Amino acid sequence: MREPAHVAVRVFVVTDRNDDISCCTLLRRTERNAEERLALAYKAFLTGKVPLRFLSRIVFQRTGAPNRRLLLGPAVGEDAAVVRVRGTVLVLATDPVTGAQENAGWLSVHLNANDVATRGAKPVWFLCCLLLPERSDAGILDKIMSQVDEAAREISVTVAGGHSEITPGLHRPIIVGSMIGEVMSGRYITTSGAKPCDKVILTKTIGLEGTAVVAHDLEEKLTRSLGEVTVRQAKAFSRRISVVKDAMIANATGGVHAMHDPTEGGIICGLWELAEASGAGIVVDESKIKVAPETESVCRVLGIDPFRVLSSGALLISSKPSHADLITRSLLRHGVDACVIGEMTKLEKGRTLIKRDGTRTKIEPPVRDELYEVLDESRASFR
């Protein structure tokens, strides 16, 4: 039987990242974009964030029943929800730790606290779902929960509940944390609040989390190239990933329009998310962005870009021009390194990174965090 005239038949060969043929399927185009949707549906996502187009098309479109008490829900660049409960404004965040094999408990508390703090809220309650691989013992459980306890006490957070189990099919522990915080001032901050002419402030140095993760997980390899001292210093970066103090100081100083902590995809992705969420342009001076010597060394050995690796520990702040100096001075006074690295612009002016040599390049989100390439390769040899 002949195909109807309006139907085009095409064959898609979907391959994995090593170019081995994984499947072949016959697709029929019956409506606009059907080919693309179905072809991509048969191709597995790479490790890391779900691609933005699928996040927007699938995840953000399936959010259950509407509720007027939800003040801020799922959106690009927004890492925490905001709800009103009987006159109190609460901030809710959830994040897993899947890339790190060491310090998972410690990271889980601080990464979730960061998302709450960037809303201008104080982290208060933490819940965690801990999934352990088969043949795990009490030592592993004790190690992770000791880290959770220590991290929570450090920022005055209460562990309010959670779940733990032994899960088949895992190669390492996975911890999914949730943090609840309270907005004390009654005014919450978003990623989407940045405005043209705002100054963009960055705290600390970029790539802190990524440096710490690979220093722990690839310690032997890095020690051969960099020596024990550098690797030990890189591992200690895990103790610098909290931005709760940074966010609280900036918010208390005033003039903050938006805050965002750059995580997966590094500072480049964080800058793009800040601009994208705000519907604005941005121009950034690369020479103003600080990279620790340990991060530079680790990234050089592994062949990855420090601007495109996990950067929890740094905080992006978009502030009124009149308050930028006040905020940076306040942060410095409290022992938090900070400086102005650029400014927000109108959307039509684009999103630009001015390189050290004066050339300009477009700020676009990386396909995925470069850290995963290294970790995927190293872990494949152990499976």
Helix fraction by DSSP (H/I, runs of at least 4): 25-40%
Strand content: 25-35%
Topology as H/E string? EEHHEEEHEHEEEHHHHEHEHEHEEEH
CATH architecture of the largest domain: Alpha-Beta Complex
Q: Could you describe the largest sheet, including whether it forms a barrel?
A: 7 strands, mixed
The CATH homologous superfamily of the largest domain corresponds to PurM-like C-terminal domain
Q: Strand order, biggest sheet?
A: 10-12-9-13-11-14-15
Number of domains: 3
Gyration radius from CA atoms, angstroms:
22 Å
Low-confidence stretches: 1-36
Q: What structural class should be given to the helix and strand makeup?
A: alpha+beta
Classify the fold: give the CATH topology of the largest domain.
Phosphoribosyl-aminoimidazole Synthetase, Chain A, domain 2
> How many helices does DSSP assign?
12
Give the oligomeric state of the chains in this entry, treating copies of one chain as homo and distinct chains as hetero.
single chain
**Average of per-residue pLDDT values:** 87
